[in-house]
TrEMBL record:
<dbReference type="GO" id="GO:0006788">
    <property type="term" value="P:heme oxidation"/>
</dbReference>
<feature type="binding site">
    <location>
        <position position="16"/>
    </location>
    <ligand>
        <name>heme b</name>
    </ligand>
</feature>
<feature type="binding site">
    <location>
        <position position="175"/>
    </location>
    <ligand>
        <name>heme b</name>
    </ligand>
</feature>
<feature type="binding site" description="axial binding residue">
    <location>
        <position position="23"/>
    </location>
    <ligand>
        <name>heme b</name>
    </ligand>
</feature>
<keyword id="KW-0408">Iron</keyword>
<dbReference type="InterPro" id="IPR016053">
    <property type="entry name" value="Haem_Oase-like"/>
</dbReference>
<dbReference type="GO" id="GO:0020037">
    <property type="term" value="F:heme binding"/>
</dbReference>
<dbReference type="InterPro" id="IPR002051">
    <property type="entry name" value="Haem_Oase"/>
</dbReference>
<keyword id="KW-0349">Heme</keyword>
<feature type="binding site">
    <location>
        <position position="129"/>
    </location>
    <ligand>
        <name>heme b</name>
    </ligand>
</feature>
<dbReference type="GO" id="GO:0046872">
    <property type="term" value="F:metal ion binding"/>
</dbReference>
<protein>
    <submittedName>
        <fullName>Heme oxygenase</fullName>
    </submittedName>
</protein>
<keyword id="KW-0479">Metal-binding</keyword>
<dbReference type="InterPro" id="IPR016084">
    <property type="entry name" value="Haem_Oase-like_multi-hlx"/>
</dbReference>
<dbReference type="GO" id="GO:0004392">
    <property type="term" value="F:heme oxygenase (decyclizing) activity"/>
</dbReference>
<dbReference type="Pfam" id="PF01126">
    <property type="entry name" value="Heme_oxygenase"/>
</dbReference>
<dbReference type="GO" id="GO:0006979">
    <property type="term" value="P:response to oxidative stress"/>
</dbReference>
Length: 214
């Protein structure tokens, strides 16, 4: 078998293949599996929602800035916006109790978003892809599984539910958007490296959550 030339072919395919190990590491970090198995207290799930809130707050601020960008603007889709759902989930999970604070890894994630995702389309799209395509892939299994494990009926897991979106059709459309990108070779390198960085940041958050709760 010959390996495909990494510089040719559809970006969406090269991206998925090039980040398979990163994804395996994210999937294998243990915290999400422990939630799905109902092994952790409900507060651990609330903490995940809180960390998501901090991350999406900054990511969706970047989206507002990037909406007018000729390249990144195509990825800014209102049906993806997660912040209202997260606010709702946190109200259900924590009620009037004070919000859980951002973990050090979450603060680092936000700092990275602020440093690159408000300015460079390749960086914004890298972070957008890692979160939203993940939410619309594995997240579609995680959401119902976590809801069942913690007895959440109707509320508390809106984050995983994208109203009016068919995940398979959306994923296909998203990959077309990725394949239509005309990055310079340098920007494509930056993009692929930034997806790796986004995975690293997500893994660090999950690791700190595991340390806190497992
Ligand atoms: C227990 C945890 C997880 C499970 C079970 C899971 C499962 C999956 C599955 C089944 C897919 C679809 C693969 C395919 O279509 O070939 C997928 C895709 C994806 N996941 Fe995960 N995942 C998990 C965690 C994560 C995490 C923590 C992230 C990053 C924040 C992530 C990001 C992604 C991305 C970006 C994709 C799209 C890959 C592509 O098609 O380009 N996943 N995941």
């Amino acid at each position: 078998m010959t390996l495909a030339d990494p510089s040719t072919g559809r970006l969406s395919v090269r991206l998925r293949e090039g980040t398979r190990l990163d994804h395996d590491a994210a999937q294998g970090s243990g915290f999400l599996d422990a939630l799905v198995a109902g092994k952790l207290p409900r507060e651990a799930y609330a903490d995940l929602a809180a960390q998501h809130w901090f991350i999406y707050e900054t990511l969706e601020q970047a989206a507002a800035v990037m909406a007018g960008d000729p390249v990144a603007g195509a990825f800014v889709l209102p049906e993806l916006t997660r912040l209202p759902a997260l606010r709702d989930d946190l109200a259900t999970l924590l009620g009037a109790r004070p919000r859980l604070g951002a973990l050090p890894a979450t603060r680092e994630y936000r700092a990275r978003l602020r440093a690159v995702a408000f300015e460079h389309p390749w960086a914004f799209i890298a972070h957008h892809y890692t979160r939203y395509l993940g939410d619309l892939s594995g997240g579609q299994y995680l959401g119902p599984a976590i809801a069942e494990a913690y007895g959440l009926t109707g509320a508390g897991h809106r984050f995983f539910v994208f109203e009016g979106v068919s995940p398979p059709a959306f994923r296909a459309r998203y990959r077309e958007l990725l394949d239509g990108l005309a990055f310079s070779p340098a920007d494509e390198q930056n993009f692929l490296a930034e997806v790796g960085e986004a995975y690293r940041l997500n893994i660090a958050v999950l690791r700190e959550l595991k340390e806190r709760w497992a």
